[in-house]
């Protein structure tokens, strides 16, 4: 099963996730990224942060960017 990494970025800062998750494919990674973005936006994860302008960036195990989810848009 491929491994995916979800990084948070606002274009200048990056919060890296070095652990990653094993998921069945790109579609599952996108679904998990949307859930993460919602949790961040609504304060369920990392409460107190201002996520305006931040993205959840999905990379595969080779480091290739799969997609990015704007936190404000979920």
Shape: globular
Range of helix content? 10-25%
Secondary-structure-based class equals alpha+beta
Average pLDDT works out at 94
Q: State which percent range the strand residues make up.
A: 25-35%
Order of helices and strands: EEEHEE
Q: How many distinct helices?
A: 1
Unreliable stretches, pLDDT < 50, 5 or more residues?
Answer: none
Major sheet attributes: 5 strands, antiparallel
The number of distinct β-strands equals: 5
End-to-end C-alpha gap: 27 Å
Task: Indicate the radius of gyration in whole angstroms.
Answer: 12 Å
Description:
With 74 residues, this protein is α+β, with helices and mostly antiparallel strands. It has a domain of 47 residues. Strands 1, 2, 3, 4 and 5 form a 5-stranded antiparallel beta sheet that branches. The protein is globular.
Q: Keywords, please?
A:
74 residues, alpha+beta, 22% helix, 31% strand, globular
Summed up:
This protein has 74 residues and is of the alpha+beta class. The protein has one helix spanning 26-41; strands spanning 3-9, 14-15, 21-22, 55-60, 65-70.
């Amino acid at each position: 099963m491929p491994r995916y990494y979800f990084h948070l970025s606002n274009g200048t800062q990056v919060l890296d996730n070095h652990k990653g998750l094993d998921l069945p494919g790109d579609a599952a990674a996108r679904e998990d990224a949307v859930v993460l973005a919602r949790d961040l936006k609504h304060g369920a994860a990392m409460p107190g942060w201002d996520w305006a302008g931040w993205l959840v960036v999905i990379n595969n195990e080779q480091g290739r960017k799969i997609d990015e989810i704007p936190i404000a848009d979920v």
